[in-house]
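Instructor's aside before we start: the two examples that follow are unrelated to each other. I chose them only because their records fit on one page, so don't look for a connection. First example below.
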Amino acid sequence: MTEAALQDCRILIAEDEYLIATDLAEALTQDNAVILGPVPRVADALSLIESGTRIDLAVLDVNLCGDMAFPVADALAAQRIPFAFATGYDDWTIPARFANVPRLVKPFRPDRLRSALKSLLPPSR
C-alpha cells in the first residue's frame, strides 16, 4: 500500500473530545485526507451520513457526549462504509456484530490510526 493511500479519502471523524478530534484531523490531514467533521454527537454523525455526503472511511469514538455511537456504526455498515473505533472502552463494551471492526485503544499513535484506516481500503487504492 502506498503512502498516498489516504490521499483524497473523505474521512468522517466522530469524536467529542476537542483535543483528540483535533489531533485525529491533523494526523489525517498530513496524509492529504479530506476531513468530515469532526462531529461530537451521534445525531450530527447520522445527519452527515444520511445527507448523501460521500464518506470513504470513518473513525468513531464509542461514547459521543454520553451516547453510545453504535447507531452511527450501524448506519455506516448499512452503507458499506468501513470504519474503526477509537476508544478507551474494553472489548466487551462493543457489540458482537462489530467484532471485525478495528479498535484503536486510546491513547494511540497517529501511525496506528493510519495503519488501521489503510487496512480498510480496497486493495486497488
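Example two begins here.
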Amino acid sequence: MSDINIRITDREGLTHDIVAPTDMSMNLMEIIRSYELAEEGTIGVCGGMAMCASCQVYVIKDPGLEPMGDEEDAMLGEAFHVEPNSRLGCQLHIADAMEGLEVVIAPYP
C-alpha cells in the first residue's frame, strides 16, 4: 500500500492535511468526499464524469499532475469561478507523482 500527502483547503477556508491511497484507483473528488470536506450534494454531482464542474479545485502546488484532457478542458470552458489554475477533481487520479499536491476547493455554483 502506498499513500501520498495532499493539502486541501475547503470552501470555508480550513486547511486539511490528507493522506490519500494511491492503490485504490481513487480520484481527488472521491478523496474530498471520503473526508467530507464539502457539503453533501455539492461535489461530484455528476458522479465524476467531467460533466458538472462541482468538483473544481484551484491547484496551488502542482508536484506533477497529468495534463488536462479534452473533456476536462471543455467542461471548465463552461463552468463558473474558473481560474487559470482550475482543474476538475474527478479527473485527477491519485498517483505517487501527486505527493505534496495543494488545492483549494472552488466555490459551488
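The radius of gyration is 12 Å.
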